[in-house]
Amino acid sequence: MPRSRLGPLAIESKLGDHPSTSSVWRAIHVQLKRAVAVKVFSAPFGGTPEARAQFTSEWEQLKKVQHPALARCYGGGFEDRDAYLAYELVEGETLRTQLDRLTRLSWESVLDMAEPIVDALEYLHGQGIIHGAIVPDKIVFSGLSPVLLDVRVHRFDSPFRSARPPAPSEIALTAPELVANPLTGSVSTDLYSLGAVLYLAVTGRYPIDGDTIEQVRQNLEHQVPASPASIVLDCPIWLDRLIIQMLEKSPPLRPPSASAVRLALAEVRRRAMSRSGVAEHVSSGFSPLRMTNQSEKDEARKLLGRELIDVDATEKKSRTSSVDWHEQPWLLILGLALVLGVLVYIAWPPSEAGLRSQAEALIAQDTRSALADAKNKPLRLLLQRFPDGENAAWAQEQIDRIDVILFLHQLKVKIKNRLSITDQGEQLHMQAQEYAANEDYAKALDKYHSMVTVLGDDDEYRVAVNAARFQIGVIERLAAEQTDAAEIIQGKLDEAERLLAENRVIEARKIWYSLVELYGDNSNLAPLIKKAQDKLREQDSN
Description:
Phosphorylase Kinase, domain 1, 3-stranded antiparallel beta sheet
């Protein structure tokens, strides 16, 4: 490169933590008016027909990859001797930038980061795709959630790849077998790299030392990283052991899959948050600790008093059986159920049509309290009692619409009163609204579209995503209205020019005056209004 256009894309500026060595550019899709990140590759003579066919097949496969923690690929193309892939533009701070600023992250933050990334790797591996280049520069925090960038299918066996040689720091995060032979990428090499990134994030140190590529390569074969818990004392032993297992030199000794790592991370969170003792953890047989000495496990059980469990269970059973029959919990529950059943039988329930009528009456009031009542009473009851009824889809649409209205109102109140906003969905909406308030509708749309892409499959953010879709519709309608207005104004300007050419100056001036008076405050139409103002000044000077 450099060039200003690449197929349908208008190139703007370089992206990345180190733009001077980056091959990724910010660009705008001219037709879609969408900002994207474009990775550009050069190949001698533009690549062979076979290589081009493989690259085309790759971007078609990447377009089908959709996961909240993965940057989407929109496709690719060829331009002269260059090829390119267009990805979703994920704006935020990279893990590399965070570590440069903070040196290391808390183990809780590392755990929060690891879980979505592992989930993304599990999804990729299920599609038969190996990432092959997991480094801090390719993990971006969009809001609070991490997103993994630069997914490739043929990272090493295609001529369309980065020509930049790897830095020593990148090799220090790469599995030994992958450094020895780049074509041996596997599930195991991805898990090693992720383990190395987690090690770096927890400790602030690379797992392998070395100032040069050769030094790192030599150390990678034999150097055993120090335990994270020995460097950072508050690192839970369960996270420590999992990371060390992921960094095993021999692939069979690493976790067998991303699914296994995901389960191990869940166990790390459960045990760390419950403050379980190390001995209890070992004796439970949790896999990342991998106690191979049976005597050690037996000793841990003695420390915990595990041999008393059966006695305790027997005593508990004995106490339960001594309760009088009329005080048994099951009998009380049965009696309560019978009473409730009678009450339900007596109270004649409204029909499906009746519930819809109740909901419509409340919705027609068009107040927030009435909308909340409609959602919490007739609409929810309609879905519960008639899930397959003819009004079920309508009821769900109304609930989604009400949730969006209440969400946007709550966010407006928080922003107005400067209340704390910690929810990721609200944070992203606030950022998009700031863009829209500054009339930067392209960035606002990008932010809303990225929310739909990143959070669209997460039920926790269902309302925020629906609100983003609603706001996209609002902005697109506004853009369409402005386009119509611009066409009308341009038509009036053309008419005034014709009148001026016919020496009908007064009629032309009336048109210019009316345009300035009607649209003078609309900044989006400012370039057209300026033409009318210039014409008026030109006539005044004459």
